[in-house]
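Incident review: delayed structure delivery

Summary: a single-chain prediction request sat in the queue longer than the usual turnaround. Root cause was a stuck worker, restarted by the on-call engineer. No data loss occurred. The affected request and its eventual output are reproduced below so the record is complete for anyone auditing the incident later.

Affected input:
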Amino acid sequence: MKIYTRGGDKGQTRIYADKPVRVNKDDDILATYGDIDELNSHVGVLISLSPACDEILQTIQQHLFQLGYAISATSSLSEQDVSFIEQQIDSLTEELPAQTHFILPGGSQPAAQAHVCRTICRRAERTLVHLASHHDVTPAALAYINRLSDYFFVLARYLNQQAGVTDVSVPTRS
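Output delivered after worker restart:
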């Protein structure tokens, strides 16, 4: 099977919602798919940097793939998946000291990559919310991506703690 089809050479592609539809490659749907795909790729980088988290992160990658079907009738993303992310956040948070200030992204390399995932996730959430104003998007998809950025934030703090790196506080102004 060839990887190229030449079908998109004129700026259109086919997507699969309830039925196959041709759309321009700059369509909001494809922008959302692209942001989710970019996030999934960065999660892959994070897995390579922190193999101790690979099982959870690979589950998240599977969820992100399902999120890509958010406007189709075939998405299997559910409230249970949202609960899964909430449980992961709660579990990591129990291991961390209370957060009393804003922190800057960075620290250890895995934590810095988790922050990159968090910011891409926020962008993907914005495009998904925009898409939801024009297409049916499941409530579970919107809730999941909202929780996922919180997960990456808490994961970054956790990874820094595991590496013995102190989070960098944002200085308060007088």
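Verification: Residues 15-165 form a domain with the Hypothetical Protein Ta1238; Chain: A; fold (CATH 1.20.1200.10).
Action items: add queue-age alerting; document worker restart procedure.
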